[in-house]
Amino acid sequence: MSDLDEFKATYFDECSELLTELEEQFAAIEAGERDADRLNAVFRAIHSIKGGAGAFGFSALVGFAHAYETLLDYVRDGRIEMSDDVVTLCIRANDIVADHVSAARTGEVLPAEYGLDEKARFDALARGESIEDEDENGEPLEEFDFEFTPVMVNLDAVGPSDAFEMGDAFDLDDAFDSAPLQAEVGHWEINFTPHRALYARANDPLLLFRELAALGDMHVRAVLRDIPPLAEFEPFDVYCSWEISLVSASVTEALIREVFEFVEGDCDIVIAQVGDVPMAQPKPVFVEPEVEAVVEIEEPPADLLALADDEVADLLSLVSELTTTPTAEPLPDVLADPVQDIFDEAPVMSFAELAASIPPPPPKPAPVAPVRAMAPASDSEESTGRSVGVQSIRVDLDKVDRVVNMVSELVITQSMLTQQMDEALRAKYTELVRGLEVLAQTTRGLQDSVMAIRAQPVKSVFSRMPRLVRELSSQTGKKIRLETVGENTEIDKTVIEQLSDPLTHMIRNSADHGIESPEKRVAMGKSETGTVRLSAEQSGGNILIAVEDDGAGINRERVLQLARDKGIVAPDVQPTDEQIDQLIFAPGFSTAEALSDISGRGVGMDVVLSNIKKIGGSVHVRSWTGKGTRMTLRLPLTLAVLDVMLVKVGPSPYVVPLSSIVETIQCSRASFERVPSGGQVLQVRGEYVQVIDLATRFGMASEHASESRFVVLCEAEGNSKVALIVDDIIGQQQVVIKSLEENFERVDGIAGGTILGDGNVALIVDVQGLKTNVVHKSAA
Amino acid sequence: MMMEALSLRDDMADNSAASAQNSLQLIAFSIGEQTYGVEITTVREIRAWNGATPLPNTREFVRGVINLRGTIVPIFDLRARFGDGQTSPTKNHVVVVMSVGDKWVGLLVDAVSDILTVSKDDIHNVPEGNSIDTELLNGIVTHDNRMVGLIDLHAVISGVRAES
Fold first, then answer.
1. Which helix (H) or strand (E) holds A729?
2. CA-based nearest distance B44→chain A, Å
3. Which of A721, A722, A772 is nearest to A579 (CA)?
4. What are the chain B neighbours of A739 within 8 Å (beta carbons)?
């Protein structure tokens, strides 16, 4: 892999995280949390995606992200209200960004008009509110846009301020919605001259200005006097610099420096604090960063004194609105004549500093807000911002997998050692026994910790589903609402990866076949909008993930009829309702195209079943006619290790997952009864349970006499039970699950394999599979 | 993991130095009087028979699965596959572990007999017919007056489920 490919891979990893974050943020925004933090997080995410895309030359993505960013910027500025329409548009935009990212990843080329509608709407929204259209054209990234609109800029028409020596300066004040404040008061003067390297590192001065603007009232002037004649113009050189004046009370030089922290070395920055001096000097004076250029105000300037009290009040409230920096020193009391008194007491402060220390006259001091409510622009800063208090590293999954595998082998070795200590040895070597016990504990702890590394909240899969539901909703014309519960439930990373497809199928199924059309729903007395509820919870050693809908439920007659037609169920068998529901997962049931138009279920559901089985899970479906359907996935917490009971069937060892075992009974004590079909049932506390003799079922001759055999009572899906007859019970242990399908294929009744302490392979009994197969078997 | 196979190939290096692309190297193994061969590049490992855990609901030529350094590998009884009944394996029987596509499988055979270099031109089609041989062989090569059947691994490992 070349370096570039690696960078790209990292970028795409980050993109998927950022897109997930976008989904999360908008879920909250949709729920009404329209605060600045959310908006900033969205802005950051889009900006990071754009930044990387620019570096790799994904121009379509950059173009779209840029337009989106502009809109977000306006929302942030308050020029556009975060209305429901805007939220909807943004959510759609997230989808488009996601599509662009995946197109960039796969190298696919999206149609040129893709996303143009939305982009046009951004532009329209932005124009509708913006002061001047030209605003955006001043931005350096404009050339990435889809449509290029040349804009005539009449430099002569731009009126340079007379205090400013710049016949060729271009006033960008409008872009920052200048407040009525002018430069007469004390302010910071910043000369910012970017070098080539700054652009080469994909930094954008505009973002720095935005951050500065967050600190106070800002004026920016672009210094264009160095632009050479076109003939000498070197496209990659930098000819533009900026002069910024920042009127802000509480801003310190350090804060300003911080804004430029990430471009340090790639530009010249001169920061000077100016009191009553005119706004710009003819030549920028370089001030060493350490030197605080505090200008003493011995006497307030005449024009300042002219400011009436009202104006001061306005000004102060404005300043405290703009500044969000907590003031270090205690705030002085509100004085009768604040300005004058403070001038008397503290003459060595700039006006800007003074203003900060005075609370706005009518209300009490502005609440202390986070120092930087505005988005930090750079990626590295962003990541630190996101993970406050949690330190994390990004590790290649392969490396973690290797550790997991080794721990698994350790678990096997440990259980092998324990297994081989027979009673005689135990009595003799007590120290060794104790050591083995400690080893067992440590192994267990190590294993738990390693598994915890791989555990992730299911959020990463769940967050993809709102988009799916939106798409389905628009495709089917149904109104569907998605509810998610328990998205912080953690589950093994490999399990999560396998979840996406099954969940997609299940939700699609709910939307396609479960939820009725709005008219039909209203006619049935239901709400117009159908609800699909996606939930996750931990239950013992399993994770239960359920997709529920409040739709029509499974049309059992149709399903049974189709199953009979296809020979899945014999004509003389009458399955229970529950068995019929389960039929939608039957292999072969859903493959025929003719079934796709049924009003019941069955499109692609065998895919769900096979995917879930592959990761050692099971699926259960429950339906209530007219009320809805619930599909539950039961998944192992981890794929690697399982607590099992080791049993013997004929000559071979088998393991039964401990999590499904209810109890074990000696055959002689169990009360079996014959049923007319010739099978056996077991009566356990008044309940009749289906009996499966594993030796018969697996075609293994049993050498044991029936009285020494055991019944293992297991719980299958939906609280139904099944009794397995085995020849012997060997004991409990931990095993590492190995796939049979890796080198072979699925075997009925077997969920996988495992390696025992003696190096032999034992097969894992698929309890659910054995039980559900009964219906199909009797059909065959 | 590749050691055995690699060393086999190293041994062959001298013999095969002269052989161009037109030749094929085979590992030959025997089942009773019959000799069969597979291309040497597919062979990963040769190991002694040490039992296998039987798989339920599979046909008789699936002997079960073994643990190959942490991976579960199915073992196919080649004699049974050719319809001659299951092998009664002893410690002297051999499992040839091969890769078929991305899967690893083991073939239970009586013994590994030789490494052969044959010319591709010498490969003949299997005579048409309804026999199992036709289905399971890719071709026939004559070597030192012996007939060597070229195993079609994909065919050998297919159809494993027991008919119920």
1. strand A728-738
2. 14
3. A772
4. 72
Q: Phi and psi dihedrals of B8, rounded to 5?
A: -60, -45
CA A656/CA A767 separation, integer angstroms: 8
Helices (H), A643-738: 694-697
B112: Cβ contacts below 8 Å, ≥ 6 apart:
B27, B28, B29, B46, B94, B96
Give the closest residue to A563 by CA, choosing from A725, A776, A291, A260: A776
Task: Supply φ then ψ for residue A168, to 5 degrees.
Answer: -115, 25
Among all residues of chain A, which has the CA nearest to that of B102? A743
> Amino acid letter at A211?
E
What confidence tens digit (pLDDT) does each residue in A491-541 have?
887 788 888 888 888 888 888 878 888 888 888 888 888 899 999 988 766
Enumerate the residues of chain B whose CB falls inside 8 A of the CB of residue A405: 70
The single-letter DSSP state of residue B53 is B
d(CA A238, CA A267): 11
Tokens 């019929």 belong to A580
B-chain residues near A748 (CB < 8 A):
56-57, 161
Residue of B nearest to A759 (CA): B67
Percent helix, strand, coil in chain B (nearest 5)? 20, 45, 35
Q: At which residue do the structure tokens 């009829």 appear? A: A561
DSSP state of A750: E
Task: State how far the Cα of A694 lies from the Cα of A715, in Å rounded to an integer.
Answer: 16
**pTM value?**
0.47
Helix (H, G, I), strand (E, B) or coil at A588: coil
ipTM score assigned to the predicted complex: 0.81
Q: What's the CA angle centered on A507, arms A501 and A508, to 5 degrees?
A: 85
Contact state of B70 with A405 under an 8 Å Cβ cutoff: yes
- The reply to whether B66 touches chain A by the CB within 8 Å rule is yes
Residues of chain B positioned with their CB less than 8 A from the CB of A750: 55-56
Assign residue A535 a region: left if phi > 0, alpha if psi is -120 to 50, beta otherwise? Answer: beta
Residue in B53, B86, B153 to test binding to A, most A beta-carbons within 10 Å: B53
Q: Which two tokens stand for residue A706?
A: 């029936």
List of residues 6+ apart from B132 with CB closer than 8 A: B81, B82, B83
Q: Out of A112-116, A410-414, B67-71, give the one with best mean pLDDT.
A: B67-71
Residue A759, both tokens: 């190096």
